[in-house]
Amino acid sequence: MTTPCLYSIVRYAPFAETEEFANIGVVLCAPLKHVFLFRLTQSNDARVTSFFKDDTIFPIAKDAVARELKLAQEQTKNISSADDIANFFSYLTAKRESIFHFSSTRVVLAESPEHELHRVYDKFVNHSDYNKERREEILTRELKNRLNSYTELQNVFRKETFGGTLTRFTMPFVAKNEDEILCAIKPLAFVQQEPGKMMEHCDSWVSRVKRAADERLLNLANVLFTIDGHKHPSSSEAKAMDEIRRTFDRNNLAHFNHNDETSIIQFAKAAI
User: Fold this and answer.
1) Integer Cα distance of 93 and 151 in angstroms
2) Nearest-CA neighbor of 194 among 220, 158, 233?
3) What is the pairing mode between strands 223-229 and 180-190?
4) How many helices (H) and strands (E) does the chain have?
5) What distance in Å separates the CA atoms of residue 264 and residue 268, rounded to the nearest whole number?
6) Residue 161 phi/psi, 5° resolution?
7) pLDDT at 13
8) Cα gap 126→245, rounded to integer Å
9) Residue 119 phi, psi (nearest 5)
10) Whole-angstrom distance, CA of residue 28 vs CA of residue 114
């Protein structure tokens, strides 16, 4: 069952004259559950200290705001009504002159306030909207090293762009024998913030390779997706991953977890 949550982004703005700030945390409350949560970045966060060329003030100031939020968390335990908790949260996050300030309060329905805190933190502090691309770049580098660690697979795979009448896309690992595609591997990261976005990422790649197969650019039997997901998935994210695997199965597309080195290497060796 979902519960309404209020949240605000904690911002660090040491120089009032420039009005520049960095998101350094999230504060969230679920009034009906009498829950008050917060999460702040590390005191030595290089992203923040490098941006402001500040490695002395931020750690001290960050510890001060952490103490303030911890005190607010304790005070919430003594507030009896949900309305009073919501009002207290609004007062806490109200606009004020300080090197720390809060974004406007936002409302979201969540199954778990704790999970929602981490989701919002990942989005606004870790910039997880970009994590899919970054994660897939990391998975690609890892797989390249794995493939090249096997003598018979060294320098066999190359990046290849498939272009037909109705499709054009690139896969990072393609083995060919003259013009024949022997094997095509693509690492996929399903770390999007919404299960629907996870499914869209799956469906886009299924449609690409199926269209390429229809145009006789490759054989689906020779395609492999290595997949990665959220480290601590919510129930809806886990459900999406199950549906993603079923989608691959329905379309006869091979897929293994990205860390299943044995299965991936066996597939690659068998294909070439």
Assistant:
1) 59
2) 233
3) parallel
4) 8, 10
5) 6
6) -100, 125
7) 84
8) 27
9) -65, -45
10) 9
Kind and range of the H or E element at 268? helix 261-271
Residue ranges for the chain with pLDDT beneath 50:
none
Sign of CA dihedral 127, 189, 38, 5: positive
Q: What are phi and psi of 77, to 5 degrees?
A: -65, -20
Specify the pairing of strand 168-177 against strand 158-163: antiparallel
Measured distance CA(100)–CA(246) in Å, rounded: 47
CA 89/CA 75 separation, integer angstroms: 11
28 and 38 Cβ atoms separated by less than 8 Å: yes
Residues 6 or more apart whose CB falls under 8 angstroms from that of 29 comprise 5, 6, 7, 35, 36, 37, 76, 85, 86, 89, 113
Angle, CA 260 vertex, CA 256 and CA 265 arms, to 5° = 90
Single-letter amino acid, residue 99: I
| Cα-based angle 27, 30, 34 (whole degrees, multiple of 5) | 110
3-state secondary structure 92-124: HCCCCCCCEEECCCEEEEECCHHHHHHHHHHHH
Q: Sketch out the chain's domains with CATH numbers.
A: 3-126 (no CATH), 130-271 (3.40.1350)
Could you tell me which residues come within 8 angstroms of residue 86 by beta carbon, excluding any fewer than 6 positions away? Answer: 6, 29, 31
Tokens found for residue 23 = 């998101």
Pairing relation of β-strands 106-110 and 168-177? unpaired
Alpha-carbon distance values, 59 to 14, 42, 134 (Å): 12, 8, 28
Helix (H) or strand (E) holding 66: helix 57-76
CA geometry: angle at 157 spanning 156 and 162, to 5°? 135
